[in-house]
């Protein structure tokens, strides 16, 4: 697993929900060594060694200080996929993230911008077929609110590497 450590804000809540604030074990070790985080919990049987150090890999970290949580939604590839629920906006089939692309409704070559209102999720097949033609998606793209993205996103605790993560993620 590439994302093995939950990163919490200074108030004990996840730093981000979309995508969930998880970091690699290597980053978790670096943050622990430079003491910019508090180690809440370590993985039980996962130890890393160097010639001079042996330490358990952190499972849950918390930042030393609180960082404000922005209520606006940043335009990003992942957030467009979340807004569209990993569904191609042309054929309406659901795909895995690796099988999706971003499509400009009004192509860049026709002065279409990379904005919430002009970019949709498309499968590779539909994106190639559309090319630079003027084909409208089944649902017009809009800028989502943060609550809209969170409602559309299902966090599956089945995939958590540590069962205690849900104490921090699903707290009220």
List keywords for this structure.
172 residues, alpha+beta, DNA Binding (I), subunit A, 2 domains, four-stranded mixed sheet, two-stranded antiparallel sheet, 6 strands, 20% helix
Characterization of this structure:
With 172 residues, this protein is α+β, with helices and mostly antiparallel strands. 20% of the residues lie in helices and 23% in strands. It has five helices and six strands; from the N terminus they run ββαββαββααα. It has helices at residues 25-33, 77-83, 124-130, 146-152, 165-169; strands at residues 5-8, 22-23, 37-49, 54-63, 100-104, 119-123. Strands 2-1-4-3 form a four-stranded mixed β-sheet, with helices on one face. Strands 5-6 form a two-stranded antiparallel ribbon. It is elongated and about 60 Å long. The model has no long low-confidence stretch (mean pLDDT 85).
**Order of strands across the biggest sheet?**
2-1-4-3
Reported for the largest beta sheet, the result is: 4 strands, mixed
Low-confidence stretches: none
Number of β-strand runs: 6
Radius of gyration computed on alpha carbons: 20 Å
Indicate how many domains the architecture comprises.
2
Query: Helix amount, in percent?
Result: 10-25%
What is the CA-CA span between the terminal residues?
Answer: 28 Å
The SSE order reads: EEHEEHEEHHH
Instruction: Report the structural category.
Output: alpha+beta
How would you state the average pLDDT, rounded? 85
Shape field: elongated
Strand composition percent? 15-25%
Count of discrete alpha- or pi-helical segments spanning 4 or more residues: 5
């Amino acid at each position: 697993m590439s994302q093995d450590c939950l990163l919490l804000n200074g108030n004990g809540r996840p730093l981000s929900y979309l995508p969930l604030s998880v970091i690699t074990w290597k980053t978790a070790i670096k943050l622990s060594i430079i003491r910019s985080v508090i180690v809440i919990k370590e993985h039980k049987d996962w130890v890393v060694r160097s010639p001079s150090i042996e330490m358990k890999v952190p499972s849950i970290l918390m930042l030393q200080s609180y960082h404000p949580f922005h209520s606006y939604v940043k335009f990003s590839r992942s957030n467009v996929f979340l807004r569209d629920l990993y569904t191609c906006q042309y054929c309406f089939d659901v795909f895995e993230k690796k099988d999706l692309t971003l499509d400009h409704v009004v192509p860049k070559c026709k002065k279409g911008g990379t904005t919430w209102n002009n970019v949709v999720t498309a499968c590779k097949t539909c994106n190639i077929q559309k090319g630079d033609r003027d084909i409208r998606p089944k649902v017009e793209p809009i800028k989502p609110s943060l609550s809209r993205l969170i409602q559309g996103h299902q966090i599956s605790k089945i995939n958590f590497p540590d069962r205690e993560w849900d104490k921090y993620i699903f707290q009220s």
